Amino acid sequence: MPTIVIPAGWRTASGIKPEELQCAAQTVGQAVDWLVETWPELRPRVLSDSGRLASWINVYVDEADIRGLDGLDTPASPNSEIMFLPAMAGG
């Protein structure tokens, strides 16, 4: 099952243990759905008000940015690591 990686602060605030972050998703979109359904408090951190992937989130599958792949349709293998990282701003 793919492993979901989220910031430590999100896990702490939601009481999520790292071993709980594995899902049976076959795509990044399925992993996003699973994450926000399982932990609804993460929804505003991951999705915009319109329900789309938030612009302030970067998502990687096995270290590849999904924006350069198939977006939410990017496949996830059972050994994949899907990482959610807040975008950094500044200069």
Automatic annotation (TrEMBL):
- Answer yes or no on keyword Transferase: yes
GO molecular function terms listed in the Swiss-Prot or TrEMBL record? nucleotidyltransferase activity
Q: Which PANTHER family does the record associate with it?
A: SULFUR CARRIER PROTEIN CYSO (PTHR38031:SF1), SULFUR CARRIER PROTEIN SLR0821-RELATED (PTHR38031)
Highest taxon in the source lineage: Bacteria
Q: Does the keyword Transcription apply?
A: no
Keyword list (alphabetical) reads: Nucleotidyltransferase, Transferase
- Its recorded name reads Adenylyltransferase/sulfurtransferase
Q: Which Pfam families match?
A: ThiS
